[in-house]
Amino acid sequence: MSRALTNQVDVEAALNGYVTPTEDYFNRSGSPALSVSHREKRRPSPTPLFGQPNPESLARMISNARKHKGAKNIGIRDRICCHQWTWFTMTMATGGVANVLYSIWVPYQADWLWYIGLIFFLFNICLFVMNCVLITMRFIMVPGSFMHSFLDQTESLFIPSVVVSAATILINTCEYGIPRTGPWLSHAMEWLFWIYIIVSVLASAGMYLILWSTQIFPIHTMTPVWVFPGYPLLLSAPFASQLIAANEVVSENPPINRLAIGMCAIAVQGTGFLISFMICAAFIYRLMTQKLPRDEQRPGVFISIGPSGFTVAGIVSLGQQSQVVIPDSFQGSTHSIIILRLLSTIIGIWLWGLSIWFFLVSAGSLLKYVRPERKMPFQMTWWSFVFPNTALVTATLALATALGSNGLRICGCVMAAILIFVWALVLVRMLRCLWNRELLWPKSLVND
After folding, report:
1. pLDDT tens readout for residues 281-312
2. Which of 18, 246, 325, 327 is the most exposed place for a label (fewest CB within 10 A)?
């Protein structure tokens, strides 16, 4: 049997020049063969830029902290110490729902929609502050856990979620705040836009650099969660479009530098989309060689919807605002506006189809859980069922406005209703797991 496998590997190596590693290969603590001529030579381990990852798990660090304090029973302090960056996916989803509700309110101007969206916005601010306080308390009460979070193979991928959560709050502030306040907020949001652009670029590049310097991710563990460090870049165009739209609505507000904001947002958005697109291409390779992810990784498949969805929502909206973005002094401004509107709509339709395709693949990956004997364990990554799909809904509504399609607008409203229902289900399931001690509970400490 082993001889047959060896012959199979040799044939594959002779034909392709490499051997496709399987999941069992990695489980044996081996390293994939890089080429035919280097199969006998093992590549030395890369030297991490920031030192070796901490071998202790978060649970062990909490255990050591408890023993140092002389604690015997698991209390609220120990549960706070289990708080992780993944909890910011909840604020990403809640802020995304507020954005969806505002996008529906714009064409219909229904007061009840605006107030429900405002409630989601204010609730999201409370959740964001709560998460910031809890994660800070964890870093204080568990020494070394801050650096550990950057070196943990799973948690480190979700660190940029705090930046994305801040972006959703800024977008909601443009939507619900600027039309109800004076010019001061418009100017403040303009400054915050430039600050966010700088922070998002540095956070994305820096986080990827840390991951590439300290971690090794086998291909069989690949999910679209690898896109997460690039997510802060993907909200630059939606942020810019909402800022410009809010500034245009209030006539007494002095105009902001719309051209610079729009062009910068397109540059950053394009960078984020291309990075995400390349990683999603690697995800397709992973599916072809390793099948669908495991049960606990399955919610992360929905993250692949976000890059194209946010790009459509931002680019199409900016294209429809060309008449206020392109200055009158620009040569051929009249023709430029028509061209930009048409081009943004065509690109939006193209990428919207890609987003729909990833949605169908992601939803199809959950079909096996329809059977009662198959269950998916709850994790905070369940919020991935909501946040990336908010991008798809806002993209659908943006195209409906650009094309003047009532059918697309009704479809977007139906999708939004389903999305809010899913948000409520995930919230209830999260609260139930908190009550049943399945979340924020150091299980490994029971036997200590």
Report:
1. 888 888 888 888 877 778 888 999 999 999 99
2. 327
Rounded Cα distance between 307 and 305, Å, is 6
Of 77, 67, 55, 230, residue with least CA distance to 147: 55
Q: How far apart are CA 45 and CA 232, in angstroms?
A: 30
**CB-side exposure of 347: number of CA atoms within 13 Å?**
21
CB 445 within 8 A of CB 66: yes
Sequence-ordered list of residues with C-beta below 8 angstroms from that of 274, at least 6 positions apart, any chain:
none
Alpha carbon distance 367, 22 (integer Å):
25
Query: Token match 């502030």: residue?
Result: 173
Q: How big, in percent rounded to 5, are the helix, strand and coil portions of the chain?
A: 75, 0, 25
Crossing angle of helices 88-108 and 161-176, rounded to 10°: 30
Residue-wise pLDDT tens digits, 72-97:
577 888 888 888 999 999 999 999 99
How far, in Å, CA of 119 to CA of 131, rounded?
A: 18
3-state secondary structure 94-107: HHHHHHHHHHHHHH
Beta strands, E only, 97-209: none
- 294: its two tokens: 């495991």
Q: Distance of CA 258 to CAs 245, 264, 326, 359, Å? A: 10, 10, 8, 33
Per-residue pLDDT, 45: 46
What token pair was written down for 167?
A: 């972006």
Q: How far is CA 67 from CA 64, 70, 74, 82, in A?
A: 5, 5, 11, 16
* Structure tokens given for 311: 């790009």
